[in-house]
Specification:
Blueprint lengths: L4 E7 L5 H16 L3 E7 L3 H7 L6
Parallel strand pairs: 1-2
């Protein structure tokens, strides 16, 4: 059985600091649970997360 886990992640946009820290936390969760998928709700540009995250996201 392949476990699946979706997590909604809300990131406020006050510059890239919040998004950078959120990316670090999401990467740490992914390292522990490689079956996780994140749904990110933010005004941070998508390219920032594409460059920062190790996993897929929506």
């Amino acid at each position: 059985m392949n476990p699946k886990l979706s997590i909604a992640y809300f990131v406020t946009f006050h510059g890239f600091g919040h998004a950078a820290r959120a990316s670090a936390v999401m990467n740490a969760i992914y390292a522990r649970w490689p079956f996780v998928h994140f749904e990110i709700f933010t005004q941070t540009p998508e390219w920032f997360f594409k460059d920062s995250l190790l996993m897929s996201f929506k």
